[in-house]
Specification:
Layout (H helix, E strand, L loop, with lengths): L5 E10 L3 E10 L6 E6 L13 E9 L3 H16 L1 H4 L3 H17 L2 H4 L4 E9 L4 E7 L3 E6 L2 E4 L9 H9 L4 E2 L2 E2 L9 E2 L21 E6 L4 E7 L1 H4 L4 H13 L4 H12 L15 E8 L5 H13 L16 H29 L9 H11 L4 E3 L5 E3 L4 E3 L3 H4 L35 H5 L12 H11 L12 H6 L79
Cofactor: Mg(2+); Mn(2+)
GO molecular function, one term: metal ion binding
Catalytic activity: O-phospho-L-threonyl-[protein] + H2O = L-threonyl-[protein] + phosphate
């Protein structure tokens, strides 16, 4: 199942002189939508509506949606081609249409190995006001007669005695209430894995598409009929659905909206319920029997019947399927998800919207440049321009161009240090070899380098002179004699190498007065040094040798932006 439910609904309505209908389908918690439906108000084109038969159907797929889609496109077409249909033997015609649809799929190589199948509940309403409902599987049709339900079909479950006998006689078995431990229904279109006993006729197979057909003659008491898949009937019984439709028709709601409301009422708030109730695909089709009335007159008739309690007494509210706590949690989560979806839609519209006005903002220009280059360059105002791979392409030299600030690196790290001359090289550490003549021969004068800023020249010269690349490397004798500072830290993630640490004017041991607590008048020796900040404006201050008797001090730092 999905991590969050798909509640998008596909709804349509229509009518002719005899019927008005609404149909809606919803994917729900399932990974895919496997249902299909078919409606033909004029089954025998090009005859006039008043003289034509009408066809309605719902197909509930399982194991995939291909068979359900094929049935939705072809069952009614196969029906009108049957000889029995032309002879007005409609019961036999509908039976032949179901079995013939299986034959058509078996003749198509695309379906011979297709593992999917579908239930089918179809209603053929003839010009003489007779309803023929053919059903194979556990989809269902019901009729409202003055508000009271009349079944138009019967579910085909493995537990039914007649179904069990056929399954066992064909070589199948029933386990955990399922045919061969797999299917929870006993009749379906497709499912050819269960139709391979070639010594038996199609109506005798483990799973058969042979339908049961129910016939009903329409009267003035008939109000509407409903066709729906088991995603509805698992949650509400037949009378509950009739009550729901009747109540909302009396309130004047459109037919399509009533279909959507029933599905919303059946939809599970989560997937933790027993037997997956409310988590299936849902499709429902409601057909109003106008009986010579207009649609508005039919609505008024139902409203008057409900108000006067004519016929069956329709309750004021539907039954509650799920606990209040589950529903409350569901509404909160759904509101949050819908808010996130609205935010994503807003951002998507902003990304695709053209630059606004004669003077677009810098943010709009940045988005336009980035999208035009297919994301090849990321631009951040006030910093360098770098490619998505992290290589600096054009460095921001704004800090070095300002003469009113000290020459400090603006995105590098460092630590306080003590006099480099006091370091002694470790005995077990191998010293760097001095530069030989070959290396000296390849050393290039920095004056010949073109278009380098002063800071870049300093960094390049330090590297060429062989200064160590790690702050924990031991100092060389030459560095000890000249009291050069330790080597700069390694390259930063932006591809730059920081300049060397510079000692304060007057030597590294220059003393300054700090105000300390609790003894504000007491002057203490301090450790001082110059350090640098990295890209996130943080630094690690380390006092290598704190003076004896020192106490916590208040330090004021001035940082260039």
């Amino acid at each position: 199942s999905l991590s969050f439910v798909a509640t998008e609904k596909h709804t349509e309505t229509g009518k002719n002189a005899r019927f008005a209908y609404g149909v809606s389908e919803m994917q729900g918690w399932r990974l895919t939508m496997e249902d299909a439906h078919a409606i033909s108000l004029n089954l025998e084109e090009p005859q006039e509506d008043a003289n034509s038969n009408t066809f309605f159907a719902v197909y509930d797929g399982h194991g995939g949606g291909s068979v359900a889609r094929f049935a939705g496109q072809n069952v009614h077409r196969r029906l009108v081609k049957e000889d029995s249909y032309q002879q007005q033997n409609y019961e036999e015609a509908m039976r032949r249409a179901f079995l013939g649809t299986d034959e058509d799929m078996l003749a198509d190589p695309a379906y011979t190995r297709d593992p999917s199948g579908c239930t089918a509940v179809t209603a053929l309403v003839t010009r003489d006001n007779r309803i023929f409902v053919a059903n194979a599987g556990d989809s269902r049709g019901v009729l409202s007669i003055k508000g009271e339900v009349k079944p138009l079909s019967f579910d085909h479950k493995p537990g039914n005695e007649s179904e069990r006998k056929r399954i066992l006689a064909a070589g199948g078995y029933i386990e955990y209430g399922r045919v061969n431990g797999n299917l929870a229904l006993a009749r379906a279109l497709g499912d050819f894995e269960f139709k391979k006993n070639y010594s038996l006729t199609p109506d005798k197979q483990i799973i058969t598409s042979n339908p049961d057909v129910t016939v009903h003659d329409i009267t003035e008491d008939d109000e509407f009929f409903v066709l729906a898949c088991d995603g509805i009937w698992d949650c509400l019984n037949s009378q509950h659905v009739v009550d729901f439709v009747r109540r909302e028709v009396a309130q004047g709601k459109p037919m399509g909206r009533i279909c959507e409301n029933i599905m919303e009422h059946c939809l599970a708030p989560d997937t933790h319920g027993a037997q997956g109730i409310g988590c299936d695909n849902m499709t429902i089709l409601i057909i109003a029997i106008l009986n010579g009335k207009t649609e508005e007159e039919w609505y008024a008739m139902i409203r008057d019947r409900v108000a006067s309690k004519f016929g069956y007494d329709t309750p004021d509210a539907p039954p509650q399927i799920y606990s209040a706590a589950r529903l409350m949690s569901w509404r909160t989560r759904r509101a949050n998800v819908e808010a996130l979806e609205r935010e994503e839609d807003h951002k998507a519209r902003e990304r695709t919207a053209p630059l606004g006005g004669p003077h677009p903002t810098l943010d709009q220009l940045t988005k336009a440049i980035t999208e035009s280059l297919n994301g090849g360059i990321s631009f951040h105002p006030g910093s360098s321009i770098m490619s998505d791979s992290g290589i600096v392409m054009f460095e921001d030299e704004s800090d070095e161009d300002r003469e009113d600030e000290p020459p400090a690196a603006h995105i590098l790290t460092g630590t306080l240090f003590e006099d480099a001359a006091e370091h002694e090289p470790a005995d077990d550490v191998e010293q760097d070899d001095p530069m030989d003549e070959d290396d000296e021969a390849y050393k290039e004068s920095f004056d010949s380098v073109i278009d380098l800023s002063p800071a870049e020249k300093d960094r390049a010269e330090i590297r060429a002179n062989g200064v160590h690349g790690h702050e924990h490397d031991p100092p060389t004798p030459s560095s000890m004699s000249t009291q050069e500072p330790p080597s700069p830290p390694p390259d930063t993630p932006r591809g730059e190498t920081p300049p060397p640490l510079r000692q304060l004017a007057g030597g590294p041991t220059k003393q300054k007065q700090l105000t300390t607590l609790p003894d504000r008048d007491k002057v203490l020796p301090t450790a001082a040094g110059e350090f640098y900040l990295d890209a996130v404006r943080t630094c690690d201050l380390t006092v290598l040798r704190p003076p004896a008797g020192s106490v916590p001090a208040s330090i004021t730092m001035y940082v260039s932006p």
